[in-house]
Write a structure and sequence with these properties.
By secondary structure, this protein is mainly alpha-helical. The chain has 5 helices and no strands. The protein is globular and about 35 Å long.
């Protein structure tokens, strides 16, 4: 029970810090994108990657596999989704999200977004945590 209490306390502290950063305008969406995101990573960039892959799976009509649960852990299902995105775009299949793969994801969502608010939100807040060449819309 003591372990649970420590974890719960750490989670509450992390939430309070995150809420403060967001309120101050320095939340995760403002963080610099890593150069790559790959199998085994556990961070905010993976959360955004998983959301983007899930949205892309939806907009592509199932041509790209979904990443599954959005848990911030780059595991087997996220790896399969990244690989299917790379196949879909005719890229070399590495399973690593570099600038080219990140660009394909953001660009694909930008051009297929329609009026889906969740995709617009992702483009606004999460694309800054994914390696890519451009922002969509250009900023």
């Amino acid at each position: 029970m003591r372990s649970f209490g420590r974890r719960a306390g750490a989670i509450l502290i992390a939430l309070a810090i995150t809420a403060g950063l967001i309120a101050a305008g320095a939340g995760p969406a403002k963080a610099a994108a890593p150069s790559t995101i790959q199998y085994g990573d556990r961070n905010w960039s993976v959360v955004c990657l998983q959301q983007g892959l899930n949205y892309f799976a939806w907009t592509s009509g199932g041509k790209v596999r979904p990443a599954g649960n959005v848990d911030g852990i780059f595991g087997q299902q996220t790896l399969g989704a990244v690989r299917s995105l790379q196949v879909y775009n005719g890229r070399r299949v590495t399973g690593v999200v570099d600038r080219t793969t990140g660009e394909d994801l953001a660009k694909g969502l930008w051009y297929t977004q329609g009026n889906a608010q969740n995709i617009k939100d992702w483009l606004t807040y999460c694309q800054h945590t994914i390696p890519r060449y451009h922002n969509y819309p250009a900023t």
